[in-house]
Write a structure and sequence with these properties.
Elements (H helix, E strand, L loop, with lengths): L3 E4 L9 E5 L5 E5 L4 E4 L7 H8 L3 H6 L1 E2 L5 E4 L2 E3 L3 E6 L7 E9 L20 E3 L5 E3 L4 H7 L5
Antiparallel strand pairs: 1-2, 2-3, 3-4, 4-6, 5-6, 7-8, 8-9, 9-10, 9-11
The chain binds zinc ion.
The site of zinc ion has 9 residues, from loops.
């Protein structure tokens, strides 16, 4: 099965939407133009979608976009412990932006502050450095990824 291809994003119209067939029922979509993602299970009334939505921050719920096929698109959350994270940030739909935060290595002196839950004497090697947080406009999702080093 070969299955990765670029398609047009129904939400923003860019052709930087990366579609990946997982199996004959599930295809994931990730648009690098607007940073939103969807998959073929994310249709209204599908239990899978409702379960996912329940755990989301309010802003993410408000930003859900439903395309013509009835698929729901959500803002991506990138969380890479060694590199950083990118997430939708803001108080409302009109003023949200992507927030990008770089991760840094935890030093020997501070490691006690970052224990791994339920693991004795084990500590995280990286932590998010909130002082590096930078905001990007919706269309600059790829720049946000570059900022944390995911894209060149
Ligand atoms: Zn898009």
């Amino acid at each position: 099965m070969n299955a990765d291809r670029l398609t047009e994003c129904p939400r923003c119209g860019s052709d930087a939407c990366y579609s990946q067939e997982i199996n004959d029922k599930i295809t994931n979509h990730m648009c690098y133009g607007c940073g939103f993602q969807s998959n073929s299970l994310m249709k209204s009334n599908e239990e899978f979608l409702n379960e996912q939505i329940e755990t989301l921050p309010e802003l993410y719920k408000d930003l859900i976009y439903e395309d013509e096929e009835g698929k729901s698109w959500l803002p991506s959350t990138i969380n890479l412990p060694k590199q950083g994270m990118v997430f939708a940030n803001g108080s409302k739909v009109e003023n949200w932006k992507w927030a990008a935060v770089k991760s840094i290595e935890v030093t020997e002196e501070e490691k006690e502050k970052y224990p791994i839950p339920n693991k004795k004497d084990q500590y995280y090697e990286h932590r998010m450095d909130m002082s590096t947080m930078k905001m990007f406009d919706e269309r600059d999702f790829m720049e946000a990824l570059s900022y944390i080093g995911v894209l060149p």
